[in-house]
UniProtKB/TrEMBL annotation:
Organism of derivation: Ohtaekwangia koreensis
Pfam families: Methyltransf_25
Protein name (record): Methyltransferase domain-containing protein
Domain of life, source organism: Bacteria
Entry keyword set: Methyltransferase, Transferase
InterPro entries reported in the protein's UniProt record: Diverse_substrate_MTase, Methyltransf_25, SAM-dependent_MTases_sf
Length: 212
């Protein structure tokens, strides 16, 4: 289990450089744009949408532009939230821990979480799914992504900034099992290879689920 303080410290330190290098990343990822547009089409009029682990807000902004005007970006890092608010002042951004979300039951009508679980072990991921399920309305859609694999990679540098953090590659089958055990049903599961010269060289998985 990775202490959340490590995650907060890392992303506070790298928030500005992360935004500078990632804020336009979706323009180079056509599959991500396709699936996010379809998610927006189906969920834009259902109520408030949460973007968990929003970072500097690139996915939040994409969904906003795709018609999801009632959206809030949520991140554990105060530094990331500050940067996101500075770049997109017309979108709501809040601090929140995915393992202990500061919202009432059935608060959100939909949620996304692109790479928000990659610093968690499987026990923590189960806890995160339970929390997401708790704050979603019945029938709400939950779309998220992660790196596929079995290894854990340690980083001590990110954009030439000193960090101390682990990145977990995850097995799609185990993630699906955790979803089922936390009262989600799966609508779609898709894996793809990384985009050369754009992404870290790992296979990616996207899971679209629905709360029972």
């Amino acid at each position: 289990m990775q202490p959340k303080e490590k995650i907060i410290t890392t992303y506070n330190a790298t928030a500005e450089s992360y935004a500078a290098t990632r804020i336009d990343e979706l323009s180079k990822k056509h599959f991500d744009r396709l699936i996010l547009k379809e998610f927006a089409r189906l969920n834009k009029d259902k109520g408030i949408c949460a973007d968990f682990g929003c970072g500097p807000g690139q996915t939040t902004k994409f969904l906003f532009d795709a018609g999801v005007k009632n959206i809030v970006g949520i991140d554990i890092s105060p530094g990331m939230v500050k940067v996101a608010r500075g770049i997109f002042p017309y979108i709501a951004f809040e601090e929140g821990d995915l393992l202990v979300l500061p919202y009432n039951e059935s608060h959100f009508a939909s949620a996304v979480a692109f790479y928000a679980i990659v610093h968690f072990d499987y026990n923590q991921i189960g806890q995160a799914f339970a929390e997401v399920n708790r704050v979603l309305k019945k029938g709400a859609h939950f779309l998220f992504s992660f790196h596929v694999g079995q290894e854990t990679v340690h980083f001590d540098k990110a954009n030439d900034i000193d960090v101390d953090i682990d990145l977990h590659f995850l097995q799609t089958e185990r993630i699906q099992e955790l979803l089922y055990s936390n009262n989600f049903k799966i609508i779609d599961t898709i894996e793809r290879f990384p985009y050369p010269d754009v992404e870290y060289a790992t296979k990616r998985a996207y899971v679209w689920a629905e709360k029972f």
